[in-house]
Amino acid sequence: MLKVGMVGIGGISGAHIPAWEAMEETELTALCDIRPERLEPYQDKHLYTDFEEMLNGEQLDILDICLPTYLHADFAIRAMERGIHVICEKPVSLKGEDVERVYDAARRNGVKFMVAQVLRFWPEYELLKEMYDSGKYGKLLSGAMSRLGQIPKWSWDNWMFDERRSGLVPFDLHIHDLDFLVYAFGKPGDARVHRAKRPEQDYFSVVYEYPEFFITTEAAWYASPYPFAASFRFQFERAILACEKEQCVLYEADGTVTDLTEAAEGDTGGINLPKSDAYANEIRYFTDCILEDRFPDRVKPEELHEVIQILNRL
Q1: Whose CA is closest to 282, among 112, 152, 100?
Q2: Distance separating alpha carbons of residues 201 and 194, to the nearest angstrom
Q3: In the beta sheet, which residues pair with residue 116?
Q4: Residue 15, SS3?
């Protein structure tokens, strides 16, 4: 049984905790947050408000880091220096040099490390990559990706409003889509950027150019109470794959329309997407890598570094 600790019991921890609890091979034993009130719902765990105290008081196999971005790399290294495997929420850092720092710590201490870039484990995005890799529907011609919502007003110490600590929309929100593009299609060429940045809101749009196609992206924290929505639409020579308004649909050039939405009703020819939780998928993958003693290469350091470099150039 692998003993798991978590540091940072904020919003995203609510997606991680059920995943750890659902696995037979892991036991989520300890939680740490400097805010005692965040720990109150978890009285069945060992609770800490000091990270070093948790490391000293527990025999952890895995640490799950759900802290603010600017703390990720240092906390990961502190744990790995003690021989603890680490899975860390995205992004690993705002600085490219931190990628080498954390992976060097993993190598020196013989432990596993992974950044939780969750889109790589989302069934809809996995299908998109498979369609591109296989060429089943011809060449990719264009794509559009969108990730929009209201500015987050709930962050501890308002750290998300501080560009030095969060990187704002490019690093906190747009990074999901850019990371997937680098993972699925490789390094883009030119990038055309438009931005409407104000103290109370931040809208960001980039068109990434590839040799045979282009991808239009947008991400925003709006001042108005715009409901969060993420979507994509990719045009191949013989099909369009669109995941919009909680539906994923394949439109083929021969007129066939297939609803691939998870748990889609009716006969879809066995190609509907599996009903799954991407956060659980990434945590399952990381745990399997530890159990099988293989390094989690689904997320590669050179890709993480490339994404950070692109964001810092935009």
Answers
A1: 112
A2: 14
A3: 89
A4: helix
Instruction: Please list, in sequence order, all residues whose beta carbon lies within 8 angstroms of the beta carbon of residue 208, skipping any fewer than 6 positions away.
Output: 178, 181, 188, 189, 190, 191, 214, 215, 217
CB 143 within 8 A of CB 233: yes
Distances (CA, A) of 67 to 21, 32, 87, 127, 258: 20, 10, 12, 30, 40
213 CA to centre of own chain: 24
Comparing C-alpha atoms, which of 290, 229, 299 is closest to residue 89?
299
Pairing of strands 85-89, 113-116: parallel
Q: What are phi and psi of 10, to 5 degrees?
A: -100, -155
Single pTM value for the model:
0.94
Alpha helices in 23-144 (DSSP H): 36-39, 51-57, 72-80, 97-109, 123-134
Nearest to 235 by CA among 254, 219, 215, 255: 215
pLDDT tens for 63-111 read 999 999 999 999 999 999 999 999 999 999 999 999 999 999 999 999 9
- Cα–Cα distance, 124 to 21 (Å, whole number): 25
Contact 221, 149 (CB under 8 A): yes
C-alpha–C-alpha distance, residues 314 and 311, integer Å? 5
Give 214-234 pLDDT, tens digit per residue: 999 999 999 999 999 999 999
Distance of alpha carbon 193 from alpha carbon 308, whole angstroms: 16
